[in-house]
Amino acid sequence: MESRVDDGSCPPLLAAALNAGWPVAVAAAVRQERLLVPVVKAPEGSLPEDEADPCGTGDAMASVTFIAADGRRALLAFSSLSALQAWDPQARPLPQPGRDIAGSAVTGGLDALIIDIASEHRVALQAGELLLASGLDG
User: Fold this and answer.
1) Euclidean distance between CA atoms 30 and 96, whole angstroms
2) C-alpha 130 chain-centroid distance
3) Band of residue 44 on the pLDDT scale cut at 50, 70, 90
4) Fewer C-beta within 10 Å: the chain N or C terminus?
């Protein structure tokens, strides 16, 4: 990743891959670029008591796991601040290297990483694509 100021826009390499709509190209771009993890206010009682409010602010925050009707689980991430806000204007962005987010999905036993779930160019990286994005493919 080259050093640049992160203004919340979609990194160019990732934008090109998303516009092409090829999951393997998106996986390769995710491996090199940053994504935004959505952090949202957790519903009361949804976190273990010792994790619910570590800062003592009265607000418990959590990342989001999407669960499909068939039980498959996916981590959500976004290419840009505008894509995140289109999904949930109240969500806070947590910038992270894409390969780390994909790696968390793999090591967490999740089935996919969904990028830009609320947009027309949403992509779900699964199986080999998820491994490629994470850098855990060898």
Assistant:
1) 11
2) 12
3) low
4) C
75 contact partners, CB below 8 Å, separation of at least 6: 37, 63, 64, 65, 66, 101, 104, 105, 108, 110, 112, 113, 114
The 3-class secondary structure across 27-75, one letter per residue, is HHHHHHCEEEEEEEECCCCCCCCCCCCCCCCCCCEEECEEECCCCCEEE
What contacts 23, CB < 8 A, 6 or more positions away? 123, 124, 125, 126, 129
Domain boundaries, the chain: 12-134
C-alpha 61/C-alpha 29 separation (Å) is: 28
Please write the tens of the pLDDT for every residue from 98-136.
999 999 999 999 999 999 999 999 999 998 999 999 988
Please tell me the pTM assigned to this model.
Answer: 0.84
Please give the backbone phi and psi of residue 40, each rounded to the nearest 5 degrees, phi first.
Answer: -125, 160
